[in-house]
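Quick one - first record:
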Amino acid sequence: MKRSELKAEYRKTLEYYRRTVWEHVKGVRIVGIQLGVANLAWCRFCKAQDEWLNSLPIAERDEARRQELDRDALRPRPLEKDEKDTPELLATLASSRLGTRKPRSFRQAVEEGHGLLQEARDYLKSLPGPRSALNASLSVFAEGSITFDEVTASSAEPGRIALLAPVQAARNRGRLTSRALKLALEREAKHMSAHSQQQIRQALKNKRISGKLLEEIRWRRFQRHL
């Protein structure tokens, strides 16, 4: 590719990351599937940036790098274990988020409080450590599979990354329907390799899709509708 084409590709991947990921997770720590898709999109734009910068003469490269955004500042922040977070603190915060419904008895109040504390303990145990959070989420997302229900549900939750956003945001209150997901996959299959077409046929049959393939389809749809 020519240098100008590499730069245009980098700018497009940056816009893809900003609009489909960063706008939804800025200042927020994420985990699981959300972190997986965010990091694959971030890696995509970093790779495109490196290819463009490496195409420049050495004398221009450092200056161009200084003028570009700090990509590490845009990197998704994983939700991970922190010694300052205690089950008691999380249970208290969860209780305040759930509302102030008055329990019918003292025993019910104790049982509900105990349940929240146990849930908080289990949640903290499930969180990865600082060094493994990113790798674990990338591995699960890229190598594992996501159900169609998870894909459609993600577009209906405010403040979360849509795993595959609808093209027409005004339709269905911005939600991706099961029918729209099926049509999107069938449409993309026509423009992909024979191997990817086979993967999509399998996904449609099992109602599950690999994270890596899903991110590729996100990117392809963004390019066409940018």
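second record:
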Amino acid sequence: MSKLSHREKADEKAVDTVIGMTTQLITLGTAVLTVVVGILGLFKSFTKTDLTHLTYAVGSMLVSVVFGLFTYGAVIAELDKTGGLRVAYSGPVRVRSVIQWFFFLLGLGLLLWTLSSYQPLTG
């Protein structure tokens, strides 16, 4: 059994971190989608603007989940191409991961903003 160098151990941890964070964002994104569906069932009196914001939040979460899958694909492709563990630092993986984070935070922000300004319709 060969010993891994300090750099190889760090690279292995970086790959594990990328995969773990990607998995967590996919899980959270799909959970938020479920929460939005539940919210729509509980609060039936959203304004048209609120429904538009919720639609954008759902869309952002879906894009985040899709880019999470793209990140997985990039990790696999880079592992296959390079044969090493430096993939966590490669451009294709980082770009897809940043896009995933951006859309996750955008969707979460839109959801929280919409819920914080929720005013039930009267009449």
